[in-house]
Specification:
The structure holds three protein chains of three kinds. Chain A is built from 20 helices and two strands. Chain A is mainly alpha-helical. The longest helix of chain A is centred in the C-terminal third of the chain and has 32 residues. Chain B is an all-alpha fold. The longest helix of chain B has 40 residues. The chains are: A mainly alpha, B mainly alpha, C mainly alpha.
Chain lengths: 493, 143, 121
């Protein structure tokens, strides 16, 4: 009986955990609850993925109101992939919070972090699973509002302004999105995404539909930090508590990319994107700009968290580049990179959090000679950095390889060249860390290593391990991504 | 606020009626405009009025912070709980049809409890916002 | 349909651009939030206005009526309003905290204070 209700449980478990943490008050109980809720969601997501791979898409009617009238939860190859990513990252990051939060937050706010953590995870999972355009907006706002609070919990006072700027830009993005949905609703009279797609195909060149496309693409681009709409991201990632940075960097922007793909291919279709409007060309131009500019900016940063935040903007460029190619291979590369970049950045920020746990802050000068005092952590950051560059044997290589192949297949040889060339810029910014950590003498006497909390070390290394594992074993990532890409393109025709 | 006799008397007269009106808006919401959201705001407004006239400390004594925070969580739990009851009775999540033998009565029952949850959370949130903002300025003044 | 026949859209577009302009042009954090609220309000109008069917009555089934207004946009916008209130409350809370930390809610002054603190460090 419970198996039939898995789609609802996926979202409801963290959603119920959130008020429970608030009512029970104790930070340690809240932590246990959060971890348990995320773990249950992860198990549910895995079960759903198995179910979808075996029997095709699952549809679940909330409140037994049949779609397209009621809200439908729809799990297909792509959304189950996102569910596994989001709940998996949340399960790894949640235990990490226990000790990390103790040093980074003022007293009494610990419980609040867990409440917001649960809400954020529930919102992101909801965005991935729902098949209803307005419900998607509501989940997006749940995730966004909780992430504004999470960022503002950072110790530095600049976290407040970062959060405020994210709030302004994020709300503009969400409002643009809802304007687009409104226009589509006026046009089609439905909010169910599948139903909307059915009604749009055939008359998809209407001016209202084109306006809706513009609003939704701009809105989601703000949310996913597509260059030049990425201005909120570096500050938000830099000043948020490490746990939060890891969670958001690995999941939040990725889910926004997912939403963009949903609307792009499922609702609007390729005809509108390529024939009527030059959307794909614009997206490709912006992606290349994002990759080149943000990578270059990253090289000149003096703070490690900010450096890797700019690198995130560049990596998102690779993902949107795959989408802009619009071929099956391109989409596969985009989806694989969603996953691989998620685990890579998650690992990086968790390890940086470990560094911050000892040094307090993360300017590059503070990691000089780090290899001596924290050899393992330094090695982990280097491994994750190699994955960011795309060195063979790491997850990053798999996604970049797929992307280059996709570019060749689409007869865009020069794109492959750009991907390889910009990877060299990535070498430059990762080298800045390696140089400081391995080759510089410690500026100050190396910090006395306090205890090494296992609850922080283990999650970080699980993700580093995942970076390596998915560099060799591509059976899950690439195959699932290819299935999802095939499905998207079938819907887009 | 010792001196403002008229304000104090009028407030004391008004507050019970505001609370009763909140209950009316809550429970008559099935048949007329209203419901949990509006009722929650009205009930919170009564406490806020009390706080404005008699001072924030007395409002906090009347409805302590711990109660307010619990209300915020409790309402959501009631809402989500109704959904789980629907699951337990063999329906989908948030399925009200199965809550009573007659599906229409089931819808009524489901909405009734959901709206109670909404009212509790909304009044909790409104009071929390009021306490946070009002309490903050007071601390600034004494600095 | 004449240009004036679409007047609800004109109002929507005016509120939208006015709100967005305030958000971009003003450096005061509270004014930014006001602009953001106006911007969001325009969306409420975009949804709700077409929900009214001319000649239609409230959507409660009763004998003698066949034409009803569409209730769905109102329900959606009720949700959107709640989201807007939450955003505004959070934004104001952040503004209060920023004022406590920096002693100002003017964006340029805050950024200048940050720059100064960075140079000193």
């Amino acid at each position: 009986m419970i198996l039939a209700h898995l789609p609802a449980l996926e979202v409801v478990v963290p959603l119920i955990a959130a008020p429970l943490t608030l009512v029970l008050r104790r930070a340690s109980i809240a932590w246990a609850l959060t971890t348990a809720a995320c773990a249950i969601s992860f198990v549910v997501a895995l079960l759903l993925a198995v179910e979808v791979a075996r029997g095709g898409p699952i549809s679940y009617a909330i409140g037994s109101w049949a779609p397209p009238w009621g809200i439908e939860y729809r799990v297909d190859a792509l959304s189950s992939f996102m569910l596994v990513l989001v709940s998996g990252i949340a399960t790894v990051v949640a235990p990490y919070a226990l000790r990390s939060v103790a040093t980074e937050l003022r007293g009494g706010q610990g419980t609040l972090l867990y409440t917001m953590f649960c809400l954020c995870v529930a919102g992101l999972l909801g965005m991935s699973i729902t098949g209803d355009a307005f419900n998607l907006f509501v989940f997006m706002e749940i995730a966004s509002l909780s992430s504004y609070v999470l960022i503002a919990l950072g110790r530095d006072r600049r976290a407040l302004l970062a959060s405020f700027q994210y709030l302004i830009l994020g709300t503009i993005g969400a409002t643009f999105f809802v304007i687009g949905v409104g226009l589509l609703f006026l046009k089609t009279g439905t909010l169910n995404l599948a139903d909307m797609a059915d009604r749009l195909h055939g008359e998809s060149t209407d001016r209202a539909v084109r306006a809706a496309l513009a609003f939704i693409v701009v809105g989601m681009s703000l949310k996913l930090a597509l260059f030049p709409l990425h201005l909120w991201l570096p500050n938000a990632y830099t000043y948020a508590p490490s746990t939060v940075t890891a969670l958001l960097a690995a999941t939040a922007t990725k889910v926004s990319v997912y939403v963009l793909m949903r609307f792009y291919f499922d609702v609007f279709g390729l005809h509108l994107l390529t024939r009527v409007l030059p959307m794909q060309d614009i997206l490709m131009g912006l992606s290349i700009l994002a990759i080149v500019t943000a990578s270059l900016v990253a090289v000149w940063q003096t703070d490690l968290k900010r450096l890797f935040a700019y690198s995130s903007v560049a990596q998102i460029g690779y993902i949107t580049l795959g989408i802009a190619l619009g071929t099956r291979e391109g989409l596969t590369a985009a989806i694989v990179h969603l996953f691989n970049h998620g685990i890579t950045k998650g690992a990086l920020f968790l390890l940086l959090g470990l560094v911050a746990y000892y040094t307090g802050r993360t300017p590059i000068s503070s990691v000089r000679g780090l290899a001596r005092s924290m050899p393992l952590t330094t090695f982990g950051i280097t491994l994750a950095g190699l994955s960011l560059v795309g060195v063979p044997g790491t997850a990053g290589f798999v996604s970049k390889w797929t992307l280059v192949l996709a570019a060749f297949e689409a007869d865009q040889w020069w794109l492959g060249g750009i991907v390889v060339a910009t990877s060299l810029i990535a070498v430059a910014y990762v080298w800045r860390f390696v140089e400081a950590a391995y080759l510089s003498a410690p500026a100050v006497p190396s910090p006395v290593p306090r205890d090494r909390p296992l609850s922080m070390v283990v999650p970080a290394w699980i993700l580093v391990g995942a970076c390596i594992w998915f560099g060799f074993d591509t059976s899950y990532t690439v195959d699932a991504a290819r299935r999802a890409a095939t499905l998207l393109l079938e819907a887009a025709q | 606020m010792k001196g403002f006799l008229v304000l104090r008397i009028v407030a004391k007269m008004l507050i019970p009626y505001i609370l009763v009106f909140a209950l009316y808006v809550q429970f008559h919401g099935d048949y007329s405009p209203g419901g949990g959201f509006q009722a929650g705001v009205i009930a919170a407004a009564a406490i806020m009025l009390y706080g404005l006239i008699f001072g924030l400390p007395s409002a906090r004594r009347l409805v302590p912070d711990a109660v307010v925070e619990t209300m915020v969580g409790l309402g959501v739990l009631i809402y989500a709980g109704v959904g789980l009851v629907g699951l337990a009775l063999g329906g989908n999540y948030l399925d009200y049809f199965v809550l009573a033998r007659d599906p229409v009565a089931g819808q009524l029952r489901g909405i009734f409890w959901v709206e109670i949850g909404v009212a509790i959370t909304v009044s909790g949130v409104m009071l929390k916002i009021f306490y946070m903002f009002a309490g903050r300025r007071r601390r600034d003044d004494t600095r | 349909m004449s240009v004036l026949g679409h007047y609800n859209y004109w109002v929507t577009v005016f509120l939208m651009t006015a709100g967005l302009y305030i958000v971009i042009a003003r450096g005061n954090l509270v004014k930014k939030l006001i602009g953001l609220s106006i911007f969001q309000t325009s969306v409420y109008l975009l949804y709700v206005a077409p929900g009214k069917v001319i000649g239609g009555t409230a959507p409660i089934i009763a004998p003698g009526y066949t034409l009803y207004s569409n209730p769905l946009p109102h329900v959606l916008i009720l949700t959107a309003i709640v989201v807007g209130v939450a955003t505004l409350a959070l934004g104001l809370a952040l503004a209060v905290r920023i004022h406590e930390q920096y002693g100002s809610i003017e964006e340029d002054e805050i950024l200048a204070a940050d720059r100064e603190a960075e140079e000193r460090a």
